[in-house]
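hey so i finaly got around to running the thing on Ribosome-binding factor A from Sphingomonas morindae. pasting the sequence first so u can double check i didnt mess up the copy paste, my clipboard has been acting weird all day
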Amino acid sequence: MKHNDSGEGRSVRLLRVGEQVRHILSDVLMRGDVHDEVLASHSVSVTEVRMSPDLKHATVFVKPLLARDEAAVLKALRTNTAYLQREVARRVNLKFAAKLKFLADESFEEGSHIDALLRRPDVARDLDADDAAAGEPDARG
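ok and heres what it spat out for the 3d tokens, dont ask me to read them lol
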């Protein structure tokens, strides 16, 4: 059987199952199926789910709305992991139920940090100089 890889080296099947798990978790959290005070009082975005190659483990990246009480939300999700795993197992047709691991999604902060770096005057000046140099014809002609 041919192994199809995406740009990041993960197979199409892993990406598809990860997206299914993401949708299920988003749905469960949005509907308030988890009976937890913290989760009931916070909107939580499930930004990405990365499946292990054997589909037995899923790393779930989450972000509370406005990044409020991120530690409390992660603790509540980890406390309710068994329930969430059962819901995922019930709705996804896999041989094994994936074990869920919840992590805070730091990609937004990383993107903001990179954006701030690129907007610094010294970096912008260097980038403008590189663009100008790239537009000049080669001296060798």
